[in-house]
Amino acid sequence: MINIDIEKELHGAGGEMLLDINLHIKQNEFIAISGKSGSGKTTLLRVLAGLEKADGKIVVDDEVWLDRNISLAPQKRKIGFVFQDYALFSNMTIIDNLLFVKRDMELANYLLYVTELSELKNRFPDSLSGGQRQRVSLCRALMDRPKLLLMDEPLSALDPAMRLKLQNEILTLHREFNITTIMVSHDPSEIYRLANRVVVLNLGKIANIGTPKEVLLETSGSQKFSFEGELLDIVRVDVIYIAIVAIGQQIVEVVLSRQERKHLRIGDTIRVSTKAFSPNIS
Amino acid sequence: MNDFTPFLLSFKLATITTIILFIISLPLAWYLSQTKSKIKPILEAITALPIVLPPSVLGFYILVGLSQNSPIGSFLKDNFNIELIFNFSGLVVASCVYSMPFMVQPLQSGFESLNRNMLEASYIAGKSQIVTIFRVALPNIKPALLTATIITFAHTIGEFGVVLMVGGNIPNETKVASVAIYEMVETMDYGSAHIYSAIMVIISFIVLLLVYLFNNRKRFY
To answer: Which of A192, A214, A229, B18 has the most CB atoms at less than 10 Å from its CB?
Structure first.
């Protein structure tokens, strides 16, 4: 059980801002934190790790990490941290990166086996791909069997296929090690796949919190499908108009009426939705 | 036959100075690279002073500061029976002051160039700052480390004004190569001056060449 109740003044791009977070996390939960950039996500992780000061209280399993008189150093908090830029020790081989955290050969070999890195264990980080480096970083974060695993957009620099593979590995390791995990992510499918709960931050405050389904499903009213996308182009074909819309990674065509076309401009963010066809009779 | 003790003296002085300065500068450079404190610019300015001050000014203050009429000089004399003027130990002190920026600045910029997250990963792994410095920070700034030690060494070999003011020109004690050359020119012994000067040029060139060779190779690695 982790209780977080912290406040911190931030000097962001939008001027002064108060990071004010009150959050209770249960054992083994997988929390995703999302929100616009500058909303305080990374700062929250860094405060939890002890890398930045804050006022308030952090209690982890009856152990006080932060309150008025105490602020445990990062060294004393049992955490693992996965950085967006991997932050591997470039002077050490892969296996030494893991053993530097803890001299536990058995665990290191096991983690490298699970993440399919055993073959690479004597290579240096510079010679690895982004996906491989991030797996090493994940293994390294687990070497000391932390109570809390913090991940700051761990997969945002990777391509979609590698992302999916790593999401599965993260999920496997999360279950196997029973670690409470907090991950910053912007990717709704990633959040849906991994997290039990989502915390949406806005300007330093919790704007929304709930299960991924509650928070992420954006359909409301009678729409059955509803997607947000960017209008790329409007093409005239004979008497009709066709809108070319980018939704996520996909490009789709939607037929427009003359009236609809008048209100749309290329570059607009639009919503593509359909309604149910079957009439309800009651 | 020429007497090469001035060269040996120069190398001995440079070696000792480099070792002492490395020990002093490592914590200072680390502190400067990590701190956000308001006194950082003041410390940086003090460290850089020897670069801009004429050696005579530096030599004059060191001479005044270490003489037995000054509080520091009389304290050392009374309590430890140490005199630091016109002897080799005095030269070491003066050289450390004079060459300090050449050790501190490359180390500091090396530390500043390190990925901060990498250092934080080490702290999160439970490692202290000392362990982090020796096992993560230093191994990742090898070119800066090499530049700092070699340039400090070479700069100490090349110093003249401070050495002359603080040490004088005592054979086997304070007569280093640069001072010896000065003396030869003064006494019109141009033959020896040529030989000594040529040796200095060759040694300095080889040292610098090795530094640049190493650092270029390192960049491609």
So the answer is: B18
* Per-residue pLDDT tens over the stretch A206-223: 999 999 988 887 655 555
Residues in chain A: 282
The total number of structural domains in chain B stands at 1
Domain containing residue A251: 223-275
Instruction: Flag if A89 and B122 touch (Cβ within 8 Å).
Output: yes
Mean pLDDT rounded to a whole number for chain A:
89
ipTM, 2 dp: 0.81
* Position A33, amino acid: I
For residue A176, the domain's CATH number is 3.40.50.300
Range of the domain at B147: 5-220
On chain B, the residues whose CB falls within 8 A of the CB of A147 are none
Who among A79, A87, A143 is closest to B117 (CB)? A87
Sorted by sequence, the CB contacts under 8 Å of residue A199 that are 6+ apart come out as A23, A31, A32, A33, A34, A206, A208, A209
* Complete edge-to-edge strand list for the sheet that includes strand A205-210: A63-66, A55-60, A2-12, A15-25, A205-210, A197-202, A30-35, A180-184, A148-152, A79-82
pLDDT in tens, A221-238: 555 677 888 888 888 888
A170 and A252 co-located in one domain: no
- Taking CB atoms and an 8 Å limit, are A89 and B117 in contact across chains? no
The answer on A205 and A118 residing in a single domain is yes
CB-based contact A85 B115, cutoff 8 Å: yes
Give chain A's contact residues with B (Cβ, < 8 Å): 49, 51, 73-77, 79-81, 83, 85, 87-91, 100-102, 140, 143-144
Q: Which of A10-19, A173-182, A270-279, B194-203 has the lowest mean pLDDT?
A: A270-279
Subunit contact B118:A75, Cβ cutoff 8 A: no
Nearest CA in chain A to B123: A75
In this structure, the answer to whether residues A61 and A105 fall within a common structural domain is yes
